[in-house]
Known about the structure:
The structure is a single chain. By secondary structure, this protein is an alpha+beta fold. Among the domains are: 48-80; 84-141, no CATH class; 292-375, no CATH class. It is built from 21 helices and 9 strands. The strands form 2 sheets. Strands 6-3-4-5-7-8 form a 6-stranded antiparallel beta sheet, with helices on one face. Mean pLDDT is 82; it is low at 12-16 and 541-553.
Amino acid sequence: MSDVPEVAAEDVMEDTPEAVATPEPTPEPPARGPWAWLKRSLARIPVPRPKTRRGAIILILITVGVGVVFAVGGSWVANYTESASFCTLCHTMTPQKKAYEASPHASVECGECHVTPGLAGFVSAKLAGTRELYALVTNTYPRPIPPIEHDKLPTADVTCLRCHTLEQITKDSGPSKLVLRTSFDTDEANSRKDLAVLLRPANDGTADARGVHFHVSQALTYTSPDAHEQTIDSVEYRDPKTGELEQFIAVLQVRESISAGRDLERLKATQQVRTMDCRDCHNRVGHAVPTANDAIDASMAAGKIDPSLPYVKRTSLDLVKQQYPSTGAGAEAVDGLSSFYKTKYPLVAKTKSAAIANATAELQRIYTLIDTPEMAVGSMTYPNNIGHQDGPGCFRCHDGAHFKVVKGVVTKEAIPSTCDTCHTFPQFTTAGASQAAPTNQELMSSVPVGARPASHQGSQWVFEHKTAAGTLLPDPNTCGACHKPAYCVNCHASGAIKVDHETMLLHHADSVRESGGTTSCAVCHQPVYCAQCHKGSILGPSNSRLDEPAAGR
């Protein structure tokens, strides 16, 4: 047995160099910066670490599945936010929803026309939607909601031209279209008038034929001070045959006729310059609503409102055009049609109660379609540029007051503006409300079709044709070979033929009074024509603008 004392193992360990305690490292200060909080948060998330191959496969499948769900779900959400069902959730969109559902494009989703394809367009649309949501929540949205400016919409080549090709709409100077329309007067008998007009290329049948889509078949630019292009001050394009630059300027923008070139440059520098496309005329193609007058006429022609009810046109207009505090109040007030007949025509109220009830229901439908008082919207709130009935439309340029500029000097040549520039003279056939409607053949019989004779080409033909006619009624050997009396009444039933243009320059006030007033002038002239000299409205109020929502309905 040894005399060496036993030493504990832990005592030996304490004497070895490895056993000497080392100081713990000083912890690094927490990271700082805009993304530091995100890094710390992500570090706390438990990440599973599979220990077997099977576990790894399951983790991968779960990750892929979650990714697919997010991708498919995100795509669905993105598509849903561009659909009509989503865009019309807010009450502020009620007028747009009603107009959209009644339009020819009701099957086209909102995003197809309002969102530019691609990520940038998507993000821009969602940012705009966020601003609109904020305005809704804070009750700061405008009433009415203004239409979107064209520069903020997708271009026509990724919207309109996806379905309607330029070749389709410009072939052979564009298609011709026969328009048939029935209207009723506001007299007791609701006298019926049937209109026929043929939309066809200008100078049809000649080498210079130009269809209405001439405006988009080449680069035609214009200037406008208005974000919604309801005023056009200058136009220019290159003649497709000669290649020469054609320039026109609104007469009210000319400061000095011999230096109009400077005015054109001023307009380009101070106004927005746009290349004309589909939207400049088809500006309400997805949200158009008829005027009260047109809607009532259509319902009477279809028999939904009985034309034999005395004064039904006038009374219906009075009811629908009234200002009401809400849509519900307006629809209830329209029920006043029955009260009118009980008071004024008790026998009619008794014998035609069913017809009156049907007319009332139809008027309520019309009112709720075209009016939304809560948003200060009526049928004329948003001007429609198709034609020139419900907005400035064609007359923004074809008003007789946009003159050609040659080498910086204004000439007498204006953008064509006569009634037969783009269509034939409207032909009316008048009949009592109880008479049978004329057939299409009867309506078409007085519509002039074909090229205008050489003798009719002169700028003064409208004044000189009486010399060739010889008689007031069309003679079979002269005018009657092509025209029927219905063609002549367009002008001869108005006061226009009484205007003595030879005395107009110095004594035009007397000439206007003798012809029956300014309504005679309005047969041929637009308000801007008189505005060259006169201030204020001479020919009566113009079509309603967006900033005057209650002016016309």
